[in-house]
Amino acid sequence: MENILKKYSTQISTLSKFIWKLSELGLAIAIAGLVLFLLLGESSGVFPVSVAENFTQIANSLGPKGISAILAAAVFLLISKRLIDKK
């Protein structure tokens, strides 16, 4: 029974790593589209324009307090990661 649990735990861990890498890839593509839009403007193409519109809609729906909370959480996570890595 213990071997079966270890096997499933390993499979779940592998699947989790795959999903995380896929999420990182998606985020990298979205950020690349946003950077292209910022560099080239409206003439950058359909994908960068749609990414910029989506980011604008998200920012508008969050409002200033929501964006501040997300930025504060990101800074907190970066600082805590650096402190953990130093140990």
Number of helices in the DSSP assignment: 2
Main sheet properties? none
Q: How large a portion of the residues is in β-strands, by DSSP E? A: under 5%
Please state the structural category: mainly alpha
Radius of gyration over all CA atoms, rounded: 19 Å
DSSP helix fraction: over 70%
What's the overall geometry? extended
Tally of distinct domains: 1
> Would you list the SSEs in sequence order as H and E?
HH
Spans with pLDDT under 50 lasting ≥5 residues?
none
First CA to last CA: what distance?
Answer: 37 Å
Question: How many strand units?
Answer: 0
Residue-averaged pLDDT: 91
Give a quick set of tags describing it:
87 residues; 2 helices; mainly alpha; 0% strand
Description:
The protein is mainly alpha-helical and 87 residues long. It has 2 helices and no strands. Helix 1 (2-40) crosses helix 2 (46-86). The chain is extended.
